[in-house]
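In the laboratory, one determines a bound structure by crystallizing the protein with its ligand and collecting diffraction data. In a computational setting the workflow is compressed into a single prediction: the sequence and the ligand go in, and a structural description comes out. We illustrate the idea with adenosine-5'-monophosphate-propyl ester.
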Amino acid sequence: MGDKKVEETTEAQIAVHWQEEGYYYPSTKFIGQANLTDPAVYDRFSLDNFPDCFTEYAKMLDWYKPWNTVLDTSDAPCWKWFKGGLINASYNCIDRHLEKNKNKTAIHFVPEPESERVDHITYQELYVRVNEFAALLRDFAGLKRGDRVTVHMPMTAELAITMLACARLGVIHSVVFGGFSPNACADRIVDSQSRVLISMDAYYRSGTLLNHKINADDAVKIAKNGGQVVDKVLVWQRYPGKSSTETPMVAGRDFFVNEELKNYYGKRIEPEKMLAEDPLFLMYTSGTTGKPKGCQHSTGGYLAYVAGTSKYIQDIHPEDVYWCMADIGWITGHSYIVYGPLALCASSVIYEGVPTYPDAGRSWRIAQELDVNIFHTAPTAIRALRKIGPDEPAKYNYHFKHMTTVGEPIEPEVWKWYQREVGKGEAAIVDTWWQTENGGFLCSTVPGIKPMKPGSAGPGVPGIHPIIYDENGHEVTKAGIAGNICIQNPWPGQFQTIWGDRDRFVETYFARYCKDPKSKDWRDWPYLAGDAATKSDDGYYRILGRIDDVINVSGHRLGTKEIESAALVVNEVAEAAVVPVAHDIKGKVPDLYIALKPGYEATEALAQKISDAICEQIGKIAKPRKVWLVPDMPKTRSGKIMRRVLGAISNNKDVGDVMTLANPEVVVIIKEMVTGK
Ligand code: PRX
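The predicted complex, in structure-token form:
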């Protein structure tokens, strides 16, 4: 640790600190209809009742064969939930609803252009489309149980259909966020050893029909250089029957799904009976090294956890119209657009476009038209909507009973606008803290039981028992003192391992506070989340930000090392350092400091080239706020880059004592360059 502790600039170090706020209480109308209002049910999730408490969630699902062991700890810390049980996720999200609800809308697909009609897909239609695509995947693409497939698609109903078709066959899907670059997609193809890539020809973003298939072509090429051959690219069409963009196809490798599907019309596929612990999907996320981690999620435990938390925290009832604005390419979309709401037979909205396009009223028109009553979004979207249309929600006739915020800390002022204007003072709000690794919520209020407190996520959700440790492994018991938030116990939604890298899984999440590496007792394996947090006297947790080299941009995780590695690909670059900077809409954005190799001149054009290289290799989401071409990096005497100093400069904070550095004079130069002072 030594040197690392000195040099790192983490999100937590530049966290916005706000005052403790007062409580807000849900309306009696909300409580009257809420799924969980009985504190005794909450109490059943105490540690005394662990792990059996979680069978309440598993019982919300249909099993082919019940489990015989609730939690198997024999391979600690790779926990196995509901061992012995047989289940299928596609069956639970579709087939079991048909008897009573086949004519109900499962998915409302809202295209970005308002001139296009919304596609209301019933559970029966979803059943038909998922079966036909599953038949194609099995019989045309040759995929079978246990195979991995990479899916690089935009926000369309076909993305959900693809995931559910994979789940039906027991094929492990690895969905890559549609905005990610071909390089990022290729890395995931190689790591998961996918020989099939599923893509789409085009999609709308802010009024432009973007050609998406070209990304697949590049990704396949790059993956091949990385040692993984993709032999089939399946391309959905945004407008079936006519090519919506120029989409060159490689003969024998690329196939339009909509054309091939004709051979499978009317086909039905018996869902595979999966073991509860069989993987359902991989979801890659950034970590402290350049290589993204493939979080492996189980079938039975994951589905039980997202169904249970959708019911108790999101308060989803089958008759609700639920809209989560996240992208399905992130974990929020997997758990709380697709698997959770559909497992509960709700109607889930999938919106193709950006919430603020073409104007500040777009989101509220969607809510009005579809009569959405549960709304789920991230602080970054709330800030953007508040900025461009603070009075806009009142102009539309919709009523949310419940709203969620997720992905980053929300400032109390922003929370209050969300509550007053978007929720019209009527909605119960939950601030949900969790991560890609977790499958579902960790801290939040149960909306029918606990009051809301702006800026605080809340206590552990039922069955989740957080604890804050200091650097030495002692519990931090004093209110308001920051430490590393951990979870004391396993839970069914927790990822099983990092795909193909168990050592990294143990090292990253458990090694720091493990009490005995040989132990098979879950009590010895607290889960390290990687966030700093404080606990208040009322047991509510406030999340301060990441303690590692990860930046949360608009609620999305980016590894600083990933961005630095992308910059180092540019020939002129000698050294690169990324630090998080506070941003009024996105929460945090990366600032990039570059030292050039000798003989190269610092020019605007070169800074632009480096910025473009990052967008090309990772995606636009990683675009630095600014590329600073500096004469040298501030360094310790042992040669380590002092990111802490750069972080302080970027955030206009005091750099502290720099006299012990090897080159304190460079700090003065950089400071003047960045702050003008
Ligand atoms: O730092 C925390 C922040 O987002 C990280 C997880 O990012 P990701 O895996 O991309 O998942 C995002 C959606 C679940 C966390 O380590 N974070 C997430 N939710 C909150 C949050 N920070 C504060 N408050 C939240 N509600």
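Residues 1-6 have pLDDT under 50 and may be disordered. Keep in mind that any predicted model is a hypothesis to be tested, not a measurement.
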